[in-house]
C-alpha cells in the first residue's frame, strides 16, 4: 500500500501572509487535499511538478502534486495533507525557515556532503553534462550547504546608523532641503504601534518633515487621545479627525489634504522608518534634482520589534518586474507636483491602492531612484491581516486590475492574468501579426545533440511561423552530413556552411545573413524545448518596441537552474541568475517565477528583432567565444532598450557539449583575452542595476553579502 509523502520546499513571508510551497502525494486513486489546521483562511494553488511525476513513475496525478498555499502570518502554522485514510501533519515556524534559508548548514553537518553517493553523482554529472556544468553546480550546492551564511538580524544591526553617524547627519547642511510630508491613515491603531511609528518619524536625523495623519473615525478613544497629545508635542504633526471611515484610499486622500511639502512619503500606521531614512532620500535628491520618485529596500520586524528578518533587496527601476509584482512597495517618496499630475488614491483599487498609484506615478516621473539600503521596517503581526482569504483575493484582483489599467493608459496591448503566486502577475502581450522567427543553430558534429534539439523544436513548438538555419562549421563526422540532407527535406530547415575557424559571433552573424525572419533566435544545439509555448512567450516581448534582447529559463538535466538572466560583476565578469538553484525554487521574493528586466541574457537562447540586431551592429566578432551575448545586451541597454527574461519559456541546456570545455592552454588564454577585451569596453568594476548590491558578488543566487 502506497504511503502519503509530504515535502515542504520553501516558506516565504509576503506582506503579512506566509506562503508555503511544496508537494504531497500518495497515489493516483485517492484524492489529495491540503489545508491549514485550525483555520479556513488560506488560499491554495496547484503547481505542476515534473520531478514528482518522475519520482512516482509517471503517474499522471503526480504532475499536479505541487502546491503553493498562503495563509495569514502566525508564529506556528500546521499544514495538513490528507489522502483517503492517510494524514500528514507538518508544523512550520516561518521565521525559522527564513533563518535556515539565509544561514545554511553548520560545517559539521556539511561534511556529510562528501559521501560516496554524492561522489558517484558528480561522476555521473560529468558524463552527462560535462565537467564545466558539473563543477558549477557542485560548487553552488556545496557552498549553500557548507557556508554558514549570514544572520540577517546581525547583519542589519551592523548596517543601522550609529549615534555618532546620526549626530553628523543632524548637523549636515544640504544645499537643497525639501520638506517631506509623510502621510499615515489610522483606524483604531494599537497605542504601542501608533507610538512607535510616530516616534520613528520624530527621531529622523533629517528634520524638515511634517507628519500628516488622517484618522478614519476610530472608535478607540485611546487612539484619538494619543494623536492629540502628539499634535501638542510637535507642531510638525497634523491630524485630520474624520467623522467617518472612508477606507484606505479615502483616508489617505484626506491625509493628502494636509500636505504642504515638496515631497510626499507613504507610511503604514504600524510600521517603522529607520532614523536615517529621510536623510538618505534628501541626500539622493541633492545628487540629482530631476528625480521625482524614490524607493528603498525594506525588511520585516516582529510584533515587539525584537528581531529583523525577511529583507527585500530590490532591483533598480525595472518596469517589467514591476508589472509582475509590486516590488517597490515601501518606502515610496515622490514629488507633490508629480502627484498633482496623476491624481490621488483611487478607491476602485482598494487593497492594492499603493500599486495603482505607484504605477501612475512611475508612468510620468522624469527619473526614478532606488536607494539600496534598508530604510523601512514592515511589522508582521496577526492583526495586520484583516479579513483573511476573502480580503486577500480582493487585494490580488485589485492588483491585477491596476496593472491592466496601467497597460491601457500607456496603450500597451495585453491581458493581465494571475502569476505563480498571490500578488504575482503575468502580462500576455498581444502578438500583433504572424511574424516569422529565424532560429539560428551553430553546429559541429554531435548528431545526437543536434537531433535532440531539432526534434524537440519540431514536436513541441506551438508557434508555427519559424525557420531553422543550421550553421555547419568544420564537422569531422561524416554521418552529420547525411543528417543534414535528411532535415533539409523539410520546408522550414536549411543548412549553410561557415568554412572558416570557429568564431561564435561570426558564425551567428553569417547564419542571420542567410535567414529572412523578422525576428532572430540564437539557439545552442545543446538545448531541448520543454514548454510548447516557448516561442510565442519570447516573441510577445521581443516585438515590443522598447525591448532589446529576450531570454528564457534554462535548466540542467537534473532540473536545477542553468540560466535566468545574466548578472554583471558577479563571479568575475558575469554569472547566470539563479544558477544551481532548484527548478521550483522561486529565489529572492519569488523573483525566479516572474518576468524580469535583466542586464543581459545568454546567447544559448536569445531572441531579438532583426532591425534592432542590425541597429546594434550585430555580434562583436572580436569576442569570438565568450561575452559576445552580454556585450550585445549591454549595447541594447546603452541605447535605451530593456532586456527581458521570461519563466514561461522553458528549455533544458546541456552546456558545452558541442565545442567542449575551456580546458586547454590555448582556450584558457583566449578566454582571458576576451575577458580583458570585454572589461576594456565596459569597465572592470561594472555594477548590475538589477541585482542588489547587498547580495554576495561570489555567486548569483541571492545570498546576503558578508561585507
Automatic annotation (TrEMBL):
CDD domains linked to this entry: GT2_RfbC_Mx_like, GT_2_like_c
SUPFAM superfamilies: Nucleotide-diphospho-sugar transferases
InterPro entries reported in the protein's UniProt record: Glyco_trans_2-like, Nucleotide-diphossugar_trans
One of the record's GO molecular function terms: glycosyltransferase activity
Glycosyltransferase 2-like domain: residues covered: 181-342, 438-616
TM spans (from-to): none
Coiled-coil portions: 654-681
Gene3D superfamilies xref list: Spore Coat Polysaccharide Biosynthesis Protein SpsA, Chain A
Record keywords, A-Z: Coiled coil
Protein name, per record: Chondroitin synthase
UniProt organism field: Clostridium vincentii
Amino acid at each position: 500500500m502506497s504511503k502519503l509523502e509530504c515535502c515542504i520546499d520553501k516558506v516565504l513571508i509576503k506582506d503579512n501572509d506566509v506562503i508555503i510551497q511544496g508537494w504531497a502525494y500518495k497515489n493516483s486513486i485517492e484524492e489529495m487535499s491540503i489545508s491549514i489546521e485550525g483555520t479556513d483562511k488560506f488560499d491554495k494553488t496547484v503547481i505542476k511538478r515534473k520531478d514528482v511525476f518522475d519520482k512516482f513513475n509517471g503517474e499522471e496525478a503526480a504532475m499536479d502534486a505541487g502546491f503553493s498555499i498562503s495563509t495569514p502570518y502566525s508564529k506556528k502554522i500546521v499544514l495538513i495533507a490528507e489522502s483517503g485514510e492517510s494524514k500528514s501533519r507538518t508544523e512550520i515556524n516561518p521565521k525559522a525557515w527564513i533563518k535556515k534559508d539565509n544561514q545554511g548548514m553548520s560545517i559539521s553537518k556539511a561534511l556529510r556532503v562528501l559521501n560516496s553517493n554524492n561522489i558517484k553523482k558528480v561522476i555521473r554529472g560529468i558524463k552527462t553534462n560535462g565537467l564545466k556544468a558539473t563543477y558549477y553546480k557542485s560548487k553552488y550546492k556545496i557552498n549553500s550547504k557548507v557556508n554558514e551564511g549570514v544572520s540577517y538580524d546581525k547583519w542589519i544591526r551592523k548596517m543601522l546608523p550609529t549615534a555618532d553617524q546620526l549626530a553628523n547627519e543632524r548637523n549636515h547642511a544640504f544645499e537643497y532641503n525639501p520638506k517631506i510630508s509623510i502621510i499615515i491613515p489610522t483606524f483604531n491603531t494599537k497605542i504601542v504601534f501608533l507610538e512607535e511609528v510616530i516616534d520613528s518619524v520624530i527621531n529622523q536625523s533629517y528634520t524638515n518633515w511634517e507628519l500628516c495623519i488622517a484618522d478614519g473615525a476610530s472608535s478607540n478613544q485611546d487612539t484619538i487621545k494619543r494623536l492629540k497629545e502628539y499634535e501638542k508635542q510637535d507642531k510638525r504633526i497634523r491630524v485630520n479627525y474624520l467623522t467617518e471611515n472612508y477606507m484606505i484610499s479615502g483616508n489617505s486622500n484626506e491625509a493628502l489634504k494636509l500636505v504642504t511639502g515638496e515631497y510626499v512619503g507613504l507610511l503604514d500606521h504600524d510600521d517603522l522608518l529607520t532614523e536615517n531614512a529621510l536623510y538618505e532620500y534628501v541626500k539622493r535628491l541633492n545628487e540629482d534634482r530631476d528625480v521625482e520618485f524614490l524607493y528603498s529596500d525594506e525588511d520585516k520586524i516582529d510584533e515587539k520589534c525584537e528581531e529583523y528578518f525577511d529583507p527585500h533587496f530590490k532591483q533598480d527601476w525595472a518596469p517589467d518586474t514591476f508589472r509582475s509584482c509590486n516590488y517597490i512597495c515601501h518606502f515610496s517618496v515622490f514629488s507633490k507636483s508629480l502627484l498633482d499630475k496623476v491624481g490621488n488614491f483611487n478607491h476602485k483599487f482598494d487593497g492594492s491602492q499603493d500599486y495603482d498609484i505607484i504605477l501612475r506615478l512611475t508612468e510620468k516621473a522624469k527619473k526614478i531612484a532606488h536607494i539600496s539600503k534598508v530604510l523601512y521596517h514592515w511589522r508582521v503581526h496577526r492583526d495586520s491581516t484583516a479579513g483573511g482569504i476573502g480580503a486577500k483575493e480582493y487585494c490580488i484582483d485589485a492588483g491585477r486590475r491596476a496593472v491592466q489599467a496601467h497597460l491601457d493608459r500607456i496603450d500597451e496591448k495585453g491581458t493581465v492574468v494571475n502569476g505563480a503566486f498571490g500578488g504575482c502577475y503575468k502580462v500576455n502581450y498581444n502578438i500583433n501579426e504572424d511574424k516569422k522567427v529565424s532560429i539560428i543553430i551553430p553546429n559541429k558534429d554531435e548528431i545526437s545533440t543536434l537531433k535532440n534539439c531539432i526534434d524537440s523544436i519540431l514536436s513541441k513548438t506551438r508557434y508555427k511561423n519559424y525557420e531553422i538555419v543550421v550553421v555547419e562549421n568544420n564537422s569531422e563526422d561524416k554521418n552529420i552530413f547525411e543528417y543534414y540532407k535528411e532535415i533539409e527535406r523539410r520546408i522550414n530547415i536549411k543548412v549553410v556552411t561557415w568554412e572558416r575557424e570557429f568564431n561564435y559571433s561570426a558564425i551567428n552573424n553569417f547564419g542571420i545573413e542567410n535567414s529572412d525572419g523578422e525576428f532572430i533566435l540564437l539557439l545552442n544545439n545543446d538545448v531541448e524545448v520543454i514548454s510548447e509555448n516557448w516561442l510565442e512567450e519570447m516573441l510577445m516581448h521581443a516585438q515590443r518596441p522598447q525591448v532589446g534582447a529576450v531570454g528564457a529559463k534554462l535548466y540542467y538535466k537534473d532540473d536545477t537552474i542553468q540560466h535566468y538572466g545574466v548578472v554583471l560583476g558577479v563571479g568575475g565578469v558575469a554569472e547566470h541568475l539563479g544558477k544551481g538553484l532548484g527548478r521550483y525554487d522561486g529565489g529572492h521574493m519569488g523573483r525566479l517565477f516572474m518576468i524580469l528586466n535583466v542586464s543581459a541574457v545568454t546567447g544559448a537562447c536569445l531572441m531579438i528583432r532583426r532591425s534592432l540586431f542590425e541597429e546594434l551592429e550585430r555580434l562583436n566578432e572580436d569576442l569570438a567565444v565568450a561575452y559576445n551575448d552580454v556585450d550585445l545586451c549591454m549595447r541594447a541597454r546603452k541605447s535605451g532598450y530593456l532586456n527581458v527574461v521570461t519563466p514561461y519559456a522553458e528549455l533544458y541546456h546541456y552546456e558545452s557539449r558541442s565545442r567542449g570545455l575551456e580546458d586547454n592552454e590555448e582556450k584558457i588564454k583566449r578566454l582571458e583575452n576576451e575577458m580583458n577585451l570585454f572589461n576594456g569596453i565596459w569597465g572592470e568594476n561594472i555594477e548590475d542595476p538589477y541585482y542588489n548590491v547587498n547580495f554576495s558578488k561570489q555567486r548569483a543566487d541571492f545570498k546576503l553579502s558578508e561585507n
